[in-house]
Specification:
CATH architecture of one domain: Sandwich
CATH class of one domain: Mainly Beta
Strand content: 35-45%
Number of strands: 8
Strand order of the largest sheet: 1-2-6-5
Radius of gyration: 30 Å
Number of helices: 2
Largest sheet: 4 strands, antiparallel
Helix content: 25-40%
Distance between the termini: 63 Å
Structural class: alpha+beta
Order of helices and strands: HHEEEEEEEE
CATH superfamily of one domain: Immunoglobulins
């Protein structure tokens, strides 16, 4: 058998002051959290993707023309990206339309972060043999865009953009 003890205190009254304090505390907490989230949102991404839209439009027209010239070359460029425990390796093989290695090129590779330019990484590529390049950086994981540029005498002659997922 259990005996329940009851207190002889009267129940607490809910007064206008109590309701006002609870409402002010609730909306004050909401306002404070909104201020924190707004501050974080504005400080991490300004929203400006292109500084000058007109210049970006002109560049786009040049990129279309360069892509048409690149397609006419029929080059075969294959890249392999592998993430090890300590380094991420990028290997690149470039051949012409007949399957011969391309000589006299400089290669540049970038791992571009899809959401934050501050995370972009440049991978220095060294030519091992004619048309074969290799480079490594500190290991990275996640989704990236691999951008490969092949240059001849300082002029870009090939560009490739591919999404890669590194584990």
């Amino acid at each position: 058998m259990s005996v329940t003890e009851r207190s002889n205190r009267p129940p607490r009254e809910v007064t206008g002051r109590t309701v006002l304090i609870c409402l002010l505390a609730f909306f004050g907490l909401i306002a404070a959290m909104n201020a924190v989230l707004i501050r974080l949102a504005v400080s991490t991404f300004g929203g400006v993707e292109t500084e000058n839209a007109y210049q970006a439009g002109l560049n786009f027209s040049r990129e279309i023309a360069a892509a048409e010239v690149q397609d006419a070359l029929h080059w075969q460029v294959k890249a392999t990206v592998s993430a090890g425990p300590e380094t991420t390796m990028v290997e690149l093989v470039a051949r012409d339309a007949n399957g011969r290695p391309l000589a006299g090129l400089d290669a540049i590779a970038q791992l571009v972060h899809p959401t934050d330019r501050r995370g972009d990484l440049t991978v220095p590529l060294d030519e091992r043999t004619s048309g074969s390049f290799r480079g490594q950086i500190v290991t990275v994981h996640g989704n990236w865009t691999l951008v490969i540029d092949l240059m001849r005498d300082g002029t870009r002659v090939f560009r490739s953009r591919n999404r890669v997922y590194l584990r």
